[in-house]
Amino acid sequence: MIAPARRAAYEVIRRVFEEDAYADRALASAVAGLDDRDRALAQRLAYGTVQRLRTLDFGIDRLGKRPVRKLDPPVRAALRLGAYQLAFTDQAEHAVVDDAVELVRAARLERAVPFTNAVMRRLAQGFRGLVASLPEGPVKLSYPDWIAAIYQRDFGPEDALSLMRSQNEPPALEVRAAGPVGEPTDIPGAYQVDTVDISRMRPMSRASQLAALVVGSQDGERILDSCAAPGGKTAILRGEVTAVEVHPGRAKALAEHVGPNVHVVNVDARELDETGFDRALVDAPCSGLGVLARRPDLRWRARPLPELQLELLQAAAERTKPGGTIVYAVCTLNADENEAVVDASGIEVDPLTDEWPQYAHHRRPEFLLTRPDRDQTSGFFIARLRAS
């Protein structure tokens, strides 16, 4: 009898790496019918395995004596899940080994059962020690080389390690609420909580909330939210808001949940035919390096998007009144997508340092940069600009 949480986690791992599914969506279907305890354990095991993929594959390659890439997918998933539990949890070894074997058997790969059993037993004996012996870096901390290189370039070697470590830990649970619901933070309306009551609060990192507050929107103004879905920042904006979303399904979902001051437009922001906005928010698509702790599979699918970001920023500037405010915000820690995009736009910078000095960018204090390791929230770059 395979433990329900392990079976659900195994399903998520297979869907993420065999079907390119998003971990959160795969989890939602995999845990249907489980009790709260098993749901929580399944999430921990699935997300941890996806997150620690590089470290796990290194250990399986080394101790399994067969390249991971050559294994049958069901075997590969079972070994990854088992290896994660052996090195990073306190799950009982015998239960972990037995369930890995049974998962392979349930996949009708009886011929692979002896191999799976042998590798799991070698992992049980040596994997935790192998991980401990690895030098601090992208293999031990499970990051692609390109992300580690960007962190080292932009923050230096010590801060790069600090960022990588911090985004392997569960993120703080932050929400937006109209009244006190937990521990207050330095962002008005943002609280840290232990659990979410969706009737009273909206899950949203305080860094994300800060990006919307920096817009400074006021009643009576026309506001452009040029990449609006899923709508967390849209809900914070005041005035007459035009919320633009290019994806039809996301635009429809957004329209069903916004307030009466928001008009949703399903169009590419670069093709919007409205102009004369007082303020604009450009929450552009990005590599997402600031939210890796919240999205375990993102580090394996992320890619920088500076060309698109620049086009979206310029499009918003063209639709904003001269002297109007443009806020460019992206949830990434990559300078190529952050200050480099603002510099390339040629738009005048309106410095933010005096208003939020605790989040001043370490090299460019006219901008804001929240950091997961320092600030215990998502990593966000925020720039305020003036249209000409």
General description of the model:
This protein has 388 residues and is an alpha/beta fold. The protein folds into two domains: 131 residues, NusB-like (N-utilizing Substance Protein B Homolog, Chain A, Orthogonal Bundle); 185 residues, 3-Layer(aba) Sandwich (Rossmann fold). Helix content is 45%, strand content 13%. It has 16 helices and twelve strands. Strands 5, 6, 7, 8, 9, 10, 11 and 12 form an eight-stranded mixed beta sheet that branches. It has a four-stranded antiparallel beta sheet with strand order 2-3-1-4, with no helix packed on it. Helix 4 crosses helix 5, helix 6 crosses helix 7 and helix 9 crosses helix 10. The relative contact order is 0.09. The mean pLDDT is 97.
Outline type: elongated
Strand content: 5-15%
Mean of pLDDT = 97
Report the span from N to C terminus.
67 Å
Count the domains: 2
Q: How are the SSEs ordered, and which strands pair?
A:
Elements: H1 4-19, H2 23-30, H3 36-51, H4 53-64, H5 73-88, H6 93-106, H7 113-133, H8 138-141, H9 145-155, H10 157-166, E1 174-176, E2 183-184, E3 190-192, E4 202-203, H11 206-214, E5 222-225, E6 240-244, H12 248-255, E7 262-265, E8 277-283, H13 298-301, H14 306-318, E9 320-330, H15 339-345, E10 348-349, E11 368-369, H16 372-375, E12 381-386
Parallel strand pairs: 5-6, 5-8, 6-7, 8-9
Antiparallel strand pairs: 1-3, 1-4, 2-3, 9-12, 10-12, 11-12
